[in-house]
Amino acid sequence: MSEKRLSLSPARFLSARRRHRSAGLVVLLFGLLAVGSAYAAFAPDNAVADNSAQSQQIEEGKKLFAVGCASCHGLNAEGGGTGEGKMAGPSLIGVGAAAVDFQVGTGRMPAQQPGAQMPRKPPVYTQAEIEALAAYVASLAPGPAVPAEEAYDVSKATDEQVTRGGELFRTNCTACHNFAGKGGALPNGRYAPSLMGVDPKHAYEAMLTGPQQMPVFSDQVLQPEDKRDVIAYLNALQEQKDPGGFGLGRLGPVSEGLWGWLVGIGALVCVAIWIGAKGVKAKGAKAE
Questions:
Q1: Is 176 annotated in some ligand binding site?
Q2: 73 among the known binding-site residues?
Q3: Which pTM does this prediction carry?
């Protein structure tokens, strides 16, 4: 048998070896090893660096959360609060980075005191700290992400888009925010805040996450281009001047009628009283 093998030419001998049952497996293993070595040589430096930076940001957000948020929202964001006499905040698991960016970026959180609604105020945290908090909460469970800048950029919005945004706003938002975005009162001491001066990113995040009593306008309800058109309409409202001189809060006929009654009718009543008083004095002077 060995003599027969030796009689084979080198090419025929190698061909016979390749036809062995384990030859395919050996080739596959060598191929995987080659691909893995190539990936290890070129890819992981950036991937490891990105993962390390993200992990560091999440860890920083966790520390900030434990100091500034855990007393109300729980040490693990489960809600309920852990400090005696502290507000019982809701669970933040699954709210996503967009909700944190909105609440903390607009200064609504951390809350100064309990109330029916948290007002907008200057933010307490820096932008880097806000991003770290958002990254930590986003790591707990999937949720809406912070939108990219192009999602709410309306610098090149057309008149058609502004008009369409106005139609969407009047259909979905005026019941609470007023047709001019000036806000309005709601039951139980709550209110819809004014939308004037709101950052476009925060306006997009509010529609995406539904803060406080506001409904959620997900991408299935209002598509991303719909949200962008609404923001374009709000920007146009802020730039619009009041043709009559006084906007009166743009609250419509109620404020205009009240102003006309108090000022117009009030002025007429004052003039009538003044005329009557002068007439009485004139009669008294003649009688003397």
A1: yes
A2: yes
A3: 0.70
